[in-house]
Amino acid sequence: MPRVFRILATAHPSQSSSASERPQASRVTVVIPTYNRAELLAQTLSSVFAQQPAPCEVIVVDDGSTDGTIEYLESVDVSVLRNKRGGWGPARGRNEGFKRTSSDFIAFLDSDDLLLPGTLGRLERALEENPTAPFAFGRCLTALKENGRWRATGLMTVDSEEMDAPLRSLFARNFVPSVGSVARTEAVGKIGGYPENTAFAEDHYFWLRLAQLADPVFVSLLTCVYRVHTGNRHSPTMAAREVEEYLALAREDPRLAPCVPARLGVALCGSFTANLGPGDRGKALASVRKNLLTRRHKGEILRAAYKHWRDRRRWVEEGLRLWDEDDELRAWLAHY
After folding, report:
1. What is the DSSP letter of 292?
2. pTM for the whole thing?
3. H-assigned helices in the chain
4. Alpha carbon distance 93, 257 (integer Å)
5. Which fold has domain 19-333?
């Protein structure tokens, strides 16, 4: 099986962040919101500085960090927007960074994730070749670092048949990674940026609103690593609380209405398994009541939940297989 991504020999994580030593800039601005993640942020920025071509600007939005983040940011070549009082949250942080963007394309990164070498350039070219697409995205490896060693936990990707109707498929489940994606600045402006009234699912809602403008483009390459750790905000249980936000979109957009059972099935699967795993049967049953028993089309919802459960197992296996077979990927990630 061929390697999914060929690591560039010149894009070593320890490469200098000096602006004078970086390759010619692209038309992509990178916006990174952060809060008290100085060490992880340094690794994220290292993967950004290693991009070829380099982003035209990197904006870090600090939301009141007290752990030395500001002192670190003074040592690297980035633009810093600081909210000293804190409390903005990631969605508003991204929006505040977006307001200061003048480039054609924008990439929003979390401050704990990693871009594989060449990602921004590949996604920028995909948008240039597909002028109607509001954003481009790739495949994302989820990985965990324990005792100094990385191990893969799965893969975030889209199946080929889902791209036949990407808006409907994306409504049912989020397959666009928050890192390793590039959007058109103009398109982000049209939808008003990230929703600031959602607490856990703003990424999914953001990509879905963009996909309502036009079909996105998928680049079938591994573009990023989502770091699994105790500081992750997202969880299937929390995201399921906001399912009504998506159902409201379906009421407004008739293209989405046929996919409501699939959306409820995905929410049911995520919430049920997340609660049943730790043994919380009460919450698991509550998710059944909310996403199944009180809804119409119960059979369709159950079938969608079972399909999503099977697909998740398949994506885990695919991520583990990719990890085992790509020695260059493992060697690259070992530097972080």
Report:
1. I
2. 0.87
3. 38-49, 69-73, 89-99, 119-129, 166-172, 185-191, 202-211, 236-240, 243-252, 260-276, 281-288, 298-325, 327-333
4. 32
5. Spore Coat Polysaccharide Biosynthesis Protein SpsA; Chain A (3.90.550)
CA neighbours closer than 13 Å in the CB half-sphere of residue 232: 16
Give the pair of three-digit tokens for residue 93: 């942080």
Cβ neighbours of residue 221 under 8 Å, at least 6 residues apart? 4, 5, 122, 138, 139
CA distance 167 to 319: 25
Instruction: Identify which of 110, 317, 135, 305 has the alpha carbon closest to the alpha carbon of residue 224.
Output: 110
Q: Are 83 and 70 in contact (CB under 8 A)?
A: no
Contact (Cβ atoms closer than 8 angstroms) between residue 84 and residue 40: no
Residue appearing with tokens 């399921």:
240
Structure tokens at 273: 């398994």
Element (H, E) at 135: strand 135-146
Residue 105 belongs to what H/E stretch?
Answer: strand 105-108
Q: Are strands 217-228 and 79-82 parallel, antiparallel or unpaired?
A: unpaired
Tokens of 89: 């949250």
**Over the chain (336 residues), what is each successive 10-residue block's mean pLDDT?**
42 39 74 95 96 95 94 94 92 96 96 95 97 98 94 96 96 93 98 82 92 97 90 52 81 94 88 62 62 74 92 96 96 94
Rounded distance between C-alpha atoms, residue 52 and residue 54, angstroms? 5
3-state secondary structure (DSSP) of residue 227 = strand
What ranges do the domains of the chain cover?
19-333
| Amino acid identity, position 2 | P
Is residue 87 within 8 Å of residue 65, measured between CB atoms? Answer: no
Which residues face 92 on adjacent strands?
A: none
User: Taking a C-beta distance cutoff of 8 angstroms, is the pair 291, 267 a contact?
Assistant: yes
Q: Name the phi and psi angles at 281, rounded to 5.
A: -65, -35
With beta carbons less than 8 A apart as the criterion, state whether 123 and 207 touch.
no
